[in-house]
Amino acid sequence: MFGRLGVTRDISESRRILTTLAELIATLSSGLFAGAAVYINLVEHPARVQTGIRPALTEFAPSYKRATVTQVSLAVVGFLGALIAWRSRSETRWLIGGGLLVSVVPFTALVILPTNKKLLDPETANDLDLAEKLLTHWGRLHSVRSVLSLASLLMFLFLLGKRRP
Question: Mind spelling out the 3-state secondary structure of the chain?
Fold first, then answer.
């Protein structure tokens, strides 16, 4: 009888550790994503545009390619962490926070990607007025990603703050 009780306690402790780890991974991923997204909106993109439209177009392509890998990875890992936390705790707000974070992926694919393609098209450099409008539009669209990831981060931080051992 005591042997079974010890095994049950070990499983329960392992589950608690896994849940805590999933919550921390979700929160860290969301925080890194939000930090990068906000940095892009407040620092990188304005500086890019300030250099002039032609240099901004030149810088956009490598920046976009690098950010894509990083941010998709963070969104997916954060969502998976939130999914595990939700399944372990039956706390729907983990799922909502994870959904907010991962929603940036389809938002980018469906809403931002057409603008990205135009900005990456070499012909855009021949129409600097169009390029400037596209860059401005892109900045506004990207701010949605910042808001969604910040909402996710705030949800996760709230949930960690109210957690009881």
Answer: CHHHHHHHHHHHHHHHHHHHHHHHHHHHHHHHHHHHHHHHHHHHHHHHHHCCHHHHHHHHHHHHHHHHHHHHHHHHHHHHHHHHHHHHHCCHHHHHHHHHHHCHHHHHHHHHHHHHHHHHCHHHHHCHHHHHHHHHHHHHHHHHHHHHHHHHHHHHHHHHHHCCC
